[in-house]
User: Fold this.
Amino acid sequence: MAKYPRKELDEMMQRWLEANRNAEAAGDWTKYLGPLYTEDAEYRWNVGANEEFVAEGRKQIEDWALGVQMAGFDGWSYPYDKVLIDETQGEIVCFWRQIAPWKRPDGSNYEVAGLGGSWFRYGGDYKWEWQRDFFDLGNVFALLAELAADGHLAPEVKAKIHRMAKGQALAGHRPLRAKASVMRKAKMGAAIARAALLGR
Assistant:
């Protein structure tokens, strides 16, 4: 037996897609997407080998995920290409793209390469209770570097990169494990250098 009616999940997704379109047009993610989370929802994504973004509760989602994290991305679009709905588990997986509002000299879009998407768990009453995004972090950084070189990187994004480079975590960022010791980092660096240089 289905956890939620398929029709209800279809409607939830249509409301979400419409809210995304409105948020893109207005440049206000909090106003349009915030109401679509339960009060105790959780939203997370990975930010590297030992770092995770986690927002717990609608307030943190609005302040951090839809506020701090989206600052400097005005004008970007996030078209959804595919939506897969599992009414038995009440879950939805979507695949989307991240496109900057400028074009390269050759006319192509500045777009994050690779796969991007969201995995949602529905909480009833047309709200998400859990969300996990996934994307290729290496391709995100590559595009940000290209935008910076071409003079398109927003000041807010530069400020966030600067903070992270100084070892200052952004709101919601937390380590997955204890940080590796200097000796451990040296051993890992030597091992990967040996593989790259000597093939062993």
